[in-house]
Specification:
The protein is an alpha/beta fold. The chain is built from 3 helices and 8 strands. The protein folds into 2 domains: 58 residues, Signal recognition particle alu RNA binding heterodimer, srp9/1, CATH 3.30.720.120; 68 residues, 2,3-Dihydroxybiphenyl 1,2-Dioxygenase, domain 1.
Length: 136
Amino acid sequence: MTDNRIRPKLVLADADAALRFYTRVLDATQLARYEVGGSVVFAEIELYGTHITLKDADEADPAPTGPGPILDVVHEDPDRIARTILDAGGETVFEMSEQPFGGRWGRVRDPFGVQWLLHSETTMSPEEIQAVLEQR
């Protein structure tokens, strides 16, 4: 028996282009890909130790409207990931910056509408973070 897992699933207008982007720009590893009639019905990548599934939007699963899904990524160098996405056609949602509760945080949106909340580990305890937030 395998361990239980939760995998984010991205429904995108162009899953094929997103797969190329994530493997080329973010060094994701494509683990699986299945198509029907030229549409990606299921694909799986591994990125930063997490498995993410993708598919082309269709009648049953339309592409999201609005700001798009948010993937929360904790990484030792969040600035590097932000620059990589921005250099490949992404846009800034929130600039990378030092946060009063410790760590660097920021958010970018890739060309497919997926938002990447990028940050380093926080350096404060939950109680310290709550105290900082209450002072704001």
